[in-house]
Amino acid sequence: MHISLGLSDYLIIAIYFGAILGIGYYLKGFTKTGDDFFLAGRRNSSWVAGLAFLSANLGALEILGWTGATMKYGMFVGHFYWIGAIPAMLFLGIFMMPFYYSSKIHSVPGYLRLRFDERTRLLNAFSFGIMTLLMSGINLYLMALVFHVLLGWDLHVSMWVSALAVAVYIILGGLMSAIFTEILQFFLIWAGLFLVAILGIIDSGGIQNLLSGLPESMSHLWANSFDPTKNEMGVTWAGIVMGLGFVLSFGYWTTDFLVVQRAFSAKDLRSAMLCPITASFFKMALPIIVVGGGLVAYKLHGQGVLTLPENPLKPGEPWNDATLPMLIARYYPTGLVGLGVTALLAGFMAGQAGNVSAFNTVWTYDLYRVLIKKDASDSHLVWVGRVTTLVGILISVATAYVAMHFTTIMDYIQAIFSWVNAPLFATMLLGMFSARITSAGAFYGLLLGMITSFSIFMGFKLGIFGEGVARILCFSPNPSDMARNLWQAWWAFFVCFVATVAISVFTKPKPPEELKGLVSGLTERAKYEGLSWYQKPVPWALLSFLVLVFINVVFF
Amino acid sequence: MGKTFLPIWFFVGIVLCTYGVILLITGAFVSNPPNVVQVLDISPNILWGLILLIMGIFFTVLGYKLREYEKED
């Protein structure tokens, strides 16, 4: 099934391409030094950094995927936007940002170098670089597939045009280009997709009517989480809290350089701390589009008035990722369709720009400067960053072609995130809050955590682990795939945590004078003399947390 | 970055204004396809176009004023 586009739709899409390329060209004149190219000149307000921080996470595939997942899991999808994000974002802002920002690093691996040693930095830089490029390639292929199936666009043209557009504006303006286009994407996603959820909710007779028509297993956030057989996700509250709310969420939001890099671009520590806190309010609002749209689609699907196309990757199955585009086709006339498609396109491209800008920084500062040219000048590093951007984009396109021909490889690549980030959170947590953790403990603990996560994944994938092992690992008599993913992350964190502590007990820590500004107790607290309460990060973090509690109580 | 560049809000404003105008013109001159479900009494293109235009003007002015403020600073 194809959604047809009119002249004004194409005009809206063309204006978007013109805008992002024009912004890149405009910013080129302001991008001279390494700090300009890799850290956007460290001059952004908390609003700019905060919206970019959220947008780096707000890929179109995430929106499409979770809207489709709502048709399957109902209100449980809200956990991924609320408990699965907000506590970690607030923790990053209040407790971790002072260490990150004060150390004036260019990247998360850069912090690992200062706090521990070169080998821990290299382990993380290599794994992050590979993960980022492979994920970027998979997203590129899936983007082209969405537009091919729904709009009839050629796969190759979609991939090359979007990839080259991203390459051009990142090469021109560096991180500032990425941040500008991410903020534009943020507004386009709300402008292009918010209305479709609202029209659907009105069409369904309002929110109360929509919720009352849902089966019991889909209509609550927590009430059905005490027994995994009573919710569609097949998980308990413990899995949600420990696996998603703690390890996966904290692992992603506090250590993934793709999002954290945006906070590094803030003009001062207060703005950097406010960055994830500002983003948290908008993150909490996204389920209006995602969960709202998904529930509308569920109701319409039940009435037989909305049908999903066949999944191109799993023939014979409905394609849940097409849920939101199907709602666009149902409610949007010509013009708004173009805006909806542009929102998705912007989401895909900004996500790719985020991946590439994070990759070029880690490659340039944590690999090239360490392993290849230690005495590189600032201008040489900017040149390397630009070349790396182009190379990174080409590797992404190559990965997309591999995924096109070997679709099963995507399961492995998408699992890399929990191999890398879940154990890294344990390393960061221990490293930032205990001066007793040693370099050897961090390196071997991180390595063991990554091996644990990888082994659990491969064990289930290759059929080495049966249901008995799954029941033990997931503390559940009948664990679902989702429960396995959540608990896999927990075990990776746990092994890394225990191994890091155990090895640190028997090895020698760095002297305190080398850890100033990097560890709690050895870092000066942020001071806000002369500022009103509403200019300080903590009151806003408390307000965000109260809103989170309120939402969870309302939809309990 | 020594020089002052236009804040992102200015570009966001220009893009939203342009989209608002396009939606308003489309809503005024192009009729809805029959397969599109009509939920509101007003054309969604006109309603949303107007909202985007107002937001666009706000952000364009905000961006411009912020740049002036930074220059003075």
CATH topology of chain A: Sodium/glucose cotransporter
Instruction: Report the portion of residues of chain B in β strands.
Output: under 5%
Number of domains of chain B: 1
Radius of gyration of chain B using CA atoms only:
17 Å
Mean pLDDT of chain A: 89
Q: Roughly what percent helix of chain A?
A: over 70%
Number of domains of chain A: 1
Describe the largest sheet of chain A. none
Structural class of chain B: mainly alpha
What's the N-to-C terminus distance of chain B?
A: 15 Å
Structural class of chain A: mainly alpha
Secondary-structure element order of chain B, as H and E?
A: HH
Could you tell me the number of beta strands of chain A?
0
Task: State the low-pLDDT regions of chain B, or none.
Answer: none
Q: State the name of the first-level CATH class of chain A.
A: Mainly Alpha
Overall outline of chain A: globular
Q: What's the N-to-C terminus distance of chain A?
A: 38 Å
CATH superfamily of chain A: Sodium/glucose cotransporter
